[in-house]
Specification:
Layout (H helix, E strand, L loop, with lengths): L5 E5 L2 E6 L1 H9 L8 E3 L6 E2 L31 E4 L5 E4 L1 H10 L7 E3 L7 E2 H4 L10 H8 L9 H27 L8 E2 L16 H5 L2 E11 L5 E15 L3 E4 L1 H12 L1 H11 L2 E10 L2 E4 L1 E5 L6 E4 L11 E2 L9 E6 L10 H10 L19 E13 L2 E6 L11 E3 L5 E5 L4 E2 L5 E7 L4 H7 L7
Parallel strand pairs: 2-19
Antiparallel strand pairs: 1-2, 1-3, 3-4, 5-6, 5-7, 7-8, 9-17, 10-11, 10-13, 11-12, 12-16, 13-14, 15-16, 18-19, 18-21, 19-20, 20-24, 21-22, 22-24, 23-24
Length: 457
Amino acid sequence: MSSELWYVRDRNRVTGPFNREQLEALRRRGQLARFHQVSRDRQSWVSAATLSDLFSAPVQAGSNEVVPLTFAPEPAHSWFYATGSIPTGPVSVEDLRRLLQSGMINTDTMVWREGLPSWITFRESGLDQGSSSISATTASKETVLRQPARHSPRRRGLLLITSMVVTLILGSIGMFFYFRGDVKRSGVRDWPGSTVRHPIHSVTEAPELTAAVGLVICGAVVTEFDGTQTEFPFSTGTCFVISEKGVLLTNRHVVQDIAKLAKADKLRSELEDKKKIKLEPKIWVFFKNQKYEATIRHQSDVFDLAILKIEPRQPLPYFRLAAKDDVARGTPVLALGFPGASRLPLSQEEEVEQVTREQKKGVRIDHHFQKSNFDYVITNGIVSVIRHEGTALCIEHTARLSGGNSGGPLVKDDGTVIGMNTLMAKEDVLAVPIYLALGVAQFHEELEREVPELAEP
């Protein structure tokens, strides 16, 4: 299988392609498991367990059997569960089973513990099947039969209340340390204005990534003389969240043309007079199915950097930015973005021509794209070298990029953003693609100056 390339799918995220050695490395790191799906053409998907050279006991393709997961020995309280947008925990296996029996959670509730590549359902975890899915050490501790102590009903009631209070206190402490930004961690900048509940700590946190990596669509709302409104796309790119309050970063070149159109009052006035339509430039940001209108807070004069702002309906997960541009050569990195939705920027004249030529009326912006265009794509590579391009410090890497990746994050395995992809691909003498990202550590001073709320406690 050394010459074959495979894609890996984990719910809404597709990564790859990977060769056999890369798949083996993913399996060793826990980022490829039996419950993932793999494909060679991104059309036909099968269980990763069918790769017999990676998993010693494959299941047959098409099987509906749930394969219990085997975990390493775990602390007494190591599981988290999510009944809404915010996880709860840590709790023990027995706590989860009691919650299941009480009806507070069900077998479709998402659960996670350190070591898992992503959130899974309670059913997939195998925890509802007894001790067979837990390590032998942990299972033996949980299955030892003990003679229950004999207490009076009142005594048992007091013990129950006390245990519930202790569990709540320990759970709150655990949640604090798990979701805190860890400002003291070397080389990571977590903005004071971002609360401690939502920093991303791993690129395997699929639900959080979906709400933190956004598809940027620059376009316009056209209003006809009869009041019909149609939304048109002109160009696309990627952005990412750096504050739960809705502060986003992207490349300046992603939004600069729509910003110019917004200031071209004369051109838009002529369009209204000649075509009897009103054109209102817009920037939309999509986090999967969540649609927001964004405003441009700042366009840098030094870097290919723009700051966008949205008004989120609830606090957003956000990325932590590297505090130093000292990443080592060979460091594994991943590029996140929306290459499938790529549209090149247009001139003002081309944008006007497209609007007047387009026949679709009353169409929303998302109807111009395929459903899969709203799923971010991850490509992997390594850092080749850090060098200067003019006044900017750039990270040269091998994670494949294409049109829609502009403005997207370049991240390490722990979720720390080290660069912003600029779509500046070159060819070296060996015709090997070279991709560049702007180091984000050089942005800190400008971000603090232009977005004061990032520094608010």
